[in-house]
Please model this.
Amino acid sequence: MTRVLIAPDKFKGSMTAAQVGAAVAAGIRQVLPHASVTVVPVADGGDGTVAAALAAGFEAVPVVATGPTGEPVDTAYARRDDLAVVELADVSGLLRLPGGEFAPMSATSRGTGEVIAAAVDAGCRWVVLGIGGSAGTDGGAGLVRALGARLLDADGLEIGDGGAALAELATIDLTALRRRLAEVEITVACDVDNPLTGPRGAATVYGPQKGADAAQVSILDTALTHWADTVAATTGADRRDTAGAGAAGGVGFAALAILDATLVPGIELILNLADFANHLSNTDLVITGEGTLDEQTLHGKAPAGVATAAQAAAIPVIAVCGQNTLAQPRLHAAGFTAAYSLSSIEPDITRCFTEGKTLLKHLGTHIATHHLPQTAIPPPPPPNHQTP
Model:
């Protein structure tokens, strides 16, 4: 029997990973109805991380937490035994900004810390934190405060939320945080290597994407530098230049410097949680994808991670996407046999968004016809054959 494993990431703004997989699977089954097709949604640490964990058999645990601008949001973490998977994007992310209005100076990661606290207080002793898609640049200050840290100004009062408020920081008290996390291991799914500050830092590189103008970027970078100085004086170690410290507006820094977390490439972590190696067993073809295949895809994004794992198992990999900017030699070098885009069969981008499922089903039929053996349909039974 022909066996196909579909392991896509989301098509951002259009379809979830599960919807992408279901559409491609429907196309394959239309051509090869007796093929074995398995869908394993994946993510790289950004939005979709909890959904990928739930698809892997985790249980959803609802939580009400503080959104990036202070409003309560309904979110959840995924739990299996004493392991919790928390997704920053779903509580402190850009998608949680009311009306989509940016708040570059005041947006907070506090809600993400509240979700971690809820998981820890419920008995979880290993927390996997996906940190893509942050709405703020607060250096992770809000997150650690929700876990018990006290960030005080020169008068001994708590500073405000957001990155700009870090300029007022005088002292840090980590007593309660360290007590709460004494027996907790935290692993961060991270796919960027930026430091916290400077020309490649959180404010300079990612601040404009969160609404910060040039003057605000400068203010935020100065505030993050002060934050790093104060954390180093408190902990005795300076982690501002560690790869990944600048991730998610500096949440990576707080995780490294204050939570003693380990940073791991997001897709590797998700593939391990999904027991992906086991799914590859006896598989004839792997299909992966995301909204846009480009150079960024090849640097830690989900499709590249899936391709690497499949290539190691000597299984061909095909990518589906909304649009593709990678030339064929570049795709082959990254382990992809081929890539098919919605824009190649429908030039109207609006229709690619609104009719994505239908178009992906069409790509599924094409892949089944051109990349799978046509022997998955069993021959007709012999005369007088009886089906039990």
Remarks:
- The longest strand covers residues 72-80.
- Residues 3-42+274-371 form a domain with the Rossmann fold fold (CATH 3.40.50.10350).
- The CA atoms of residues 172 and 234 lie 7 Å apart.
- Residues 214-235 form the longest helix (22 residues).
